[in-house]
Amino acid sequence: YVNLIQIKGPIGQFQVTPTVGCVPLAVQFTGTIASTELISFVTGDGTAFNNQVNIPYTYTVAGRYYPVYTLIDSFGCQVAYETTPITVGSYPYPNLPKDTNVCQGNYVQLNLPPGDSIQTSETFLWTSNYGKTYLTCDTCQHPVSQIDSAGTIIYYISSTSYYNYGGSQASCNAKDTFAVNVIPLQPVFPGLNVRICPKDTIQMHAGKGVTQATWTPNLYISDSSSPDPKVWAPDTITYRVTSDNGIGCSISRVITVWPITKVVADIAIRDTAVCSGAQVPIDVVVTQASIKDT
Predict the structure, then answer these.
(1) 121 close to 200: Cβ distance less than 8 angstroms
(2) d(CA 243, CA 215)
(3) Within 13 Å of residue 72, how many CA atoms lie on the same side as its CB?
(4) Among 183, 177, 184, which residue's Cα sits nearest to residue 99?
(5) Helix or strand or coil: residue 227?
C-alpha cells in the first residue's frame, strides 16, 4: 500500500468595491486567505503589492483593469484568484475651441470629441444664455450654430458618459462653455432698380448709415469707392455694391440701371365739370422717368 498525501493548496476569497466609477477611482480590496505563505497582488495597471490582503488603491487613468491575487503555500503550490474587473470611466471634457467670431448670416460647426472605448453610451445637452440655442440639434455631438442676430451667444455644454459592467453602473459628467461673437453686417440696401433718361445723372446710395462701399463695374460712375456715387449709364447696367465692416465681414447687393427714351405719365382723372373758382385734385402717375425705386 502507498500512503497518499492530499495537498489542498492556498485558499483565498477576495472582494473589491466599487467596481465602476469615474477617474480618479478609489477602491478597497479586501479578502480572506488560508494555507498561504506568500501573497502577490497586481492591480492591473502595472502596480504590485506583496503579502497584503486588504489594500486601498486609486486608479488615476481611465480603462478596464483585471486585478489578480496570487497565493503560494508552504509546499510551493500556487493559485491565482481574479477579482471583479474594475471599470474606470473618464470625464468627457468637451475640449471646445477658443471663443470665435462669425459674420452675421454665417454658421459655426461645433464638434465634441468621442468618448472612451469602454463607455456604454454618451449624452449631450446644449443650452445658451439666450434661452434659445439656434443650434440644429440641442442634444447632438456635432450641431451647427445658426444664430442670425448680432451679439454674443454663450453655449453651455453638458456631456455625460455612462458605464455599465457586471451589473454595476456609473456616470461621468463634464461641462464647458463656448462663446460665439456674431459680428453685424453693414446695412447695405441700394434700392430695387433705377430708370434714367438719356444723358441724365442719378444719385445712388449704398444704404442708410453705410460709410464705406465699393461699386462694380467701374463704368459711368463718379466714384466707385464712394457709398454715394452718381451714375449716368447709357445702357442697362447691373451694379454690385459691397461694404466691409472692417473686420472681414462683407455684404453685397445689386441694383439695375436701365435707360428710357421718354417720360410716360398718366393723369388719373376723367373729364369733369366744376363751378368757377373750385379746385380739382389732379394725380399724375409717372411710369417712366429718371427715378429710383426704393
Answers:
(1) no
(2) 9
(3) 8
(4) 177
(5) coil
Integer Cα distance of 73 and 279 in angstroms:
127
Q: What is the pLDDT of residues 201-237, one digit of tens each?
A: 999 999 999 999 999 999 999 999 999 999 999 999 9
Residue 190's alpha-carbon distances to 210, 227, 231, 235, 286, in angstroms, are 10, 10, 13, 19, 21
By the 8 A CB rule, do 20 and 87 touch? yes
Grid cell for residue 132: 434659445
Cell 465699393 identifies what position?
214
How open is the CA angle 134-140-141, to the nearest 5 degrees? 115
Residue 149 near residue 182, CB atoms below 8 Å:
yes
Scanning the structure block, which residue is given the C-alpha cell 500556487? Answer: 78
Q: 267 is written with which cell numbers?
A: 393723369
pTM of the predicted model as reported, rounded to 2 decimal places: 0.72
Is 293 buried (19+), middle (13-18) or exposed (0-12) by CB count in 10 A?
exposed
Q: Residue 92: what residue type?
A: P
Strand partners, 156: 127, 177
* Planar angle of CA 162, 166, 170, nearest 5 degrees: 25
